[in-house]
Amino acid sequence: MLPSRLLRFSAALAFLHSAQASTNPFTQYAVDFPDPNRVAAGNLPKNLAGAEDTIVAWADEMNSYGPWSVTFKQVLAPSGDKHDYMSWAPYHWPNCTGIPNSASFTPPEIWEKCPYITRDGEANPDRILINDFQSFFNLSDAVLYNSIAAVLQGTPSSSYSQNVAKFIDTWFLNNDTFMNPNLNYAQMDRGPTGQMGTFTGPLDLRGMAKIASGILMLRKTKNSDWTEARNAQFVAWCNKYIGWLQTAPQAKSAAAQLNNHGTIFVSQLAALKLVVGDTNGAVSLIQGYFSGIFKGQINSNGEQVPKRSDPHTPIPLSEFNAGGMITNARLLSYADPTLTPSGWNATTQQGATIQKAMDFLMTVNPATSQETNVTIEIYPNIAAVASAYGDASGKYGTFLNKSGFPYANDATFLWDQPLAGGDLAAESEANHTGSAAGSTSGVPAPTQSATNKTKNGSLSRFGRLELGSWAAGVLGVIGLLY
């Protein structure tokens, strides 16, 4: 029998499940690691039809846009190598004042000859001309949802697992389309003194945790489309990229950041270490996070310590970082389910836990930062906290119920809710030393809908990305969670 704290949460969500449509519009969450063992085992509750339908629908939708490759972009990195990943620093703008003949410059001449200045929080719309970031983000979702759909089908091979193989081959492995295993030109500074990537670049590949989750599921279920040869090639690529993450100056700088950059750097690198079989390395890395920068990230009241100058985005960045914290706790539980204390039990210097941070965020009105469209990304985080710590007062279920968001039909409901995992539903994951609970954070990628505007008129940084509109040519500024 389920304890009262979980019954309250489940009852609140049962209303959402019965009152909403069977599938949700596609939403991209920034950081996720559904527990591969939990999903692969298949011993999930029977109230997940809406989530399962949504996962299959999202997989089908993503499949209509893939595959993706860094070689598909129209602008080459400064190296001239089509296999190099590239993205431009999102908040950098050209200042051609005083530059001779600048009025007649072509776009490539502007990119190289004009100095660039930073307008924090104000995205330069031309960054979408190089869409490697969004392509990778789409890839990561496609791999995750196709992998889960393949598991749900319960067959050794399916069109979904075949799609995973195709997408991985195209981005990472094929001779004509592979990505070089580095981010030398990610979040690149432009101008005469730029032309190289920056410490913000590693954040571009934060979807790697989703890819890791999907691949580990296919391994666990012995899917015949994830062959030994393909696995060996992918592991070899990941090992090379891990080497870059551990040695490149911009990667080392990202790892040293005290905010979301440092948090999610750990998520990405730990997930990669799990893929290549370095479980001890993953555990050590995440433990280092919880005994290191995490210690200074949350005040005693749950408010996260601001580590960014942009005054217009305190809520989004806090929710983004909370998603990274949750992801790291999930990764640690998966890597070593017997570990005590777990990431959920970790406390900051002021005695706060991840739960305290989410409790605080539930009290904040997004309108105070004119970011009223950001709240969608908080729901999976709340459910993750409820599944880890319990919901004795019913506040988490009530919050989700009152939101009106059809969470019980969201993809993340499959793994990010108290009932997930059969017999583990009877106790809080925070105090559990057995198998890990499923999934992780929920920070959605920015919308590509032209209807959501910020006060500056630029496309909003959060919310729902509906790929039907995107495919029709509605392009927006996306991925601006820096």
Strand content: under 5%
Known CATH architecture: Alpha/alpha barrel
Oligomer: single chain
Radius of gyration: 21 Å
| Helix-strand string | HHHEEHEHHEHHHHHHHHHH
Helical percentage: 40-55%
Secondary structure class reads mainly alpha
Q: What topology, given as strand order, has the largest sheet?
A: 1-4
**End-to-end gap:** 44 Å
The whole-number mean of residue pLDDT values reads: 82
Count of alpha and pi helical runs: 16
Q: Classify the fold: give the CATH topology.
A: Glycosyltransferase
Query: How many structural units, i.e. domains?
Result: 1
Total beta strands? 4
Shape: globular
Poorly predicted ranges (pLDDT <50, ≥5 residues)? Answer: 1-21, 419-481
Specify the biggest β-sheet. 2 strands, parallel
The CATH C-level name is: Mainly Alpha
Going by CATH, the homologous superfamily would be Chondroitin AC/alginate lyase
List keywords for this structure.
mainly alpha; Glycosyltransferase; two-stranded antiparallel sheet; 16 helices; globular; disordered N terminus; disordered C terminus
How would you describe what is shown here?
- It is a single chain.
- The chain has one domain: Glycosyltransferase.
- Helices cover 43% and strands 3% of the residues.
- It is built from 16 helices and 4 strands.
- The strands form 2 sheets. A two-stranded parallel ribbon has the order 1-4. A two-stranded antiparallel sheet has the order 2-3.
- Helix 5 runs parallel beside helix 7 and helix 13 packs across helix 14.
- The radius of gyration is 21 Å and the shape is globular.
- The N terminus and C terminus are likely disordered.
